[in-house]
What we know:
Shape: elongated
CATH topology of the largest domain: Tetracycline Repressor, domain 2
Strand content: under 5%
CATH class of the largest domain: Mainly Alpha
Number of strands: 0
Number of domains: 2
CATH architecture of the largest domain: Orthogonal Bundle
Distance between the termini: 66 Å
Low-confidence stretches: 1-5
Radius of gyration: 19 Å
Largest sheet: none
CATH superfamily of the largest domain: Tetracycline Repressor, domain 2
Helix content: over 70%
Amino acid sequence: MTAPAQAGGRREEILRIAAQLIAEEGFDQATMRLIAKAAGIQPASLYYHFATKEDILDEVIRGFLADLPGRYRAIIAAGNPARRTLHDLIALGFRASLANATVMAIIIHERKLFARHDRFAYVADTMRAIERLWLGVLEQGVAAGEFRRGLNLPLVLRMILDLAGSAIEWYRPNNRRHALDAIIDAQLDFIFHGITDLK
């Protein structure tokens, strides 16, 4: 009766190992043979779990992206002022990105791959949907006088998202110098207050 659970656990382990390899080496260089070797199994055994490398990548990416837009929509649906809403969106976005840094690295670095394959069109679609949600909150904040007028909002949004994206390049879950909450708090403080006391 324990075989299915063991198989599921092994599958998750292979996905984790494959994601790390793809993030480090790139999708094209992370061959099925390399993934199998890193997982300590024969290539034939890897094909027992996954028919293609694209299947592996799809499962890694889809699992992360599946519920992300809904989580952002739930924050917006709470109906808080735009500043509070944006704060919560950023906190969730940074936390999700840093807690899943390997997957986010793949999403960032494999954009050309995703664009070449219709199978992965959902990646760009999901990211655009998220950006539209965030942009709507920024626009709401400007209209309500919570954010200053004259901002290039698409550029502001890009800078906010890039701040989280850059952190995944150096953040490590076992980092003893910078805990996840401390990084998120510092990023939020920088976005909302900058580095001066000028009013």
